[in-house]
Amino acid sequence: MGAQCDFCGDQRSMVYCRSDAASLCLSCDRNVHSANALSRRHTRTLLCDRCTSQPAMVRCLVENVSLCQNCDWNGHSAGSEAAGHKRQTINCYSGCPSSAELSRLWSFISDIPNVAPEPNCEQGISMMSISDSGVSNQDNAAGDNSLLDIASATLTNDLDTCDRVQSLEGSSSGAGVNLLPTASDQIARPVDSTTPKVPYTPEKDMFCKDTIYEDFCVDDVDLAFENYEELFGTSHIQTEQLFDDAGIDSYFEMKEAPAGNADEQKLVQPANSNAVSADSGMSNPVAKGDSSVCIPVRQARSSLSLSFSGLTGESSAGDHQDCVVSSVLLMGEPPWHPPGPEGSYPGGSRDSALTRYKEKKKRRKFDKKIRYASRKARADVRKRVKGRFVKAGEAYDYDPLCETRSY
DNA sequence: TGGGTTCTCACGGCCACAGCCCGGA
DNA sequence: TGTCCGGGCTGTGGCCGTGAGAACC
């Protein structure tokens, strides 16, 4: 480390905020991200110990350093001495966690500075959400129905996932490149503050212990799907196209197909693209509690890579590293898929599901990519008259902040 | 079956202004 | 060659007007 905090310029920076593209010390992190509800939603993670400029994705347990994707790959490439180093993924968080909470989140960090609770951040840890992608010290409270838990569970039910984990443990490039855990399915997955905290059992993720899918809650998934949209910018356009290509109806038709084995389901899937096959992964019965049927992770992964191909040059490595999509695509069920035995639609619920989907799609702006978050933030709070911006200090009929009128 | 009316939806323009971009000093 | 300055341009969200298409009579 050694980089100074971008905010105060005084303290050593420790965390990286992708939304702000800033390295911050913990104190400034709390100050900056307790300012308002929007800033509290920024997901942060540790700073890479090696380059001190990128968000860390994994923790090398041997070298005891946090590494970003590039440094990880560079340092643990096949053939290198460190290729076999055991690594753990590093959690993201949002909200305003205290130093104690961060200590629990990052147990491997011994020198977390003490940070006083932020009075503006009334909920503390309850406000905080942890993006669990591999490591946490929290016990896995059974029944905590978190999306990420489900995502992890989905992975852990797949033998391929074991391969994946092993590949993470071993070489990060070269011969193992095909099995290389993409940023999308390997690393920290930010979660909106509204998403429940994620309990975690390290053994579960790292060693593919059995996991069950009880308490799968569609509401959680809905939340996550919103997050996915919110966080993903461009790449979700692919997702829309994905649905558009196959058509949402085709998806529901697929879901209504006789609940046979996976092969039968494959037969009724639209087979026009790999992207659609990602859908097939999403419709996999894994989340129904059938641990005997697993998502073909390699298939899903290849689909993921297609999805990510939509990232433009403007997308930073961090965009890849956010990879909420992994949570969504790998979690076994589409976000609007209702819970219930066999995942079937009771009479009439198909229409409601379709309606919900359409409403969500309507709310979304798939074709819009925010290029300048600062401008968006300003526009979000700018006063208007009949939708038009007004000069500062002039009469307005709409204030996004308080929805009051000046006259 | 064709014409008229109504409704829904999509799209673009408008507004202010911070910050980006780029040319010139 | 690098830095600074200033002017022009860009992009942001909500509302409204307009046109296209669907639905109905």
Automatic annotation (TrEMBL):
Its main location: nucleus. InterPro entries: CCT_domain (IPR010402), CONSTANS-like_Bbox1 (IPR049808), Znf_B-box (IPR000315). GO terms for biological process: regulation of DNA-templated transcription. It is found in: Nucleus. PROSITE patterns: CCT, ZF_BBOX. One of its GO terms (cellular component) is nucleus. SMART domains: BBOX. Residues 350-392 form the CCT domain. Keywords: Metal-binding, Nucleus, Repeat, Zinc, Zinc-finger. Pfam families: ANCHR-like_BBOX, CCT. Coiled coil: none annotated. Residues 1-47, 43-90 form the B box-type domain. One of its GO terms (molecular function) is zinc ion binding. PANTHER family: OS06G0298200 PROTEIN (PTHR31717:SF134), ZINC FINGER PROTEIN CONSTANS-LIKE 10 (PTHR31717). Belongs to the CONSTANS family. This is CCT domain-containing protein. The lineage of its organism: Eukaryota, Viridiplantae, Streptophyta, Embryophyta, Tracheophyta.
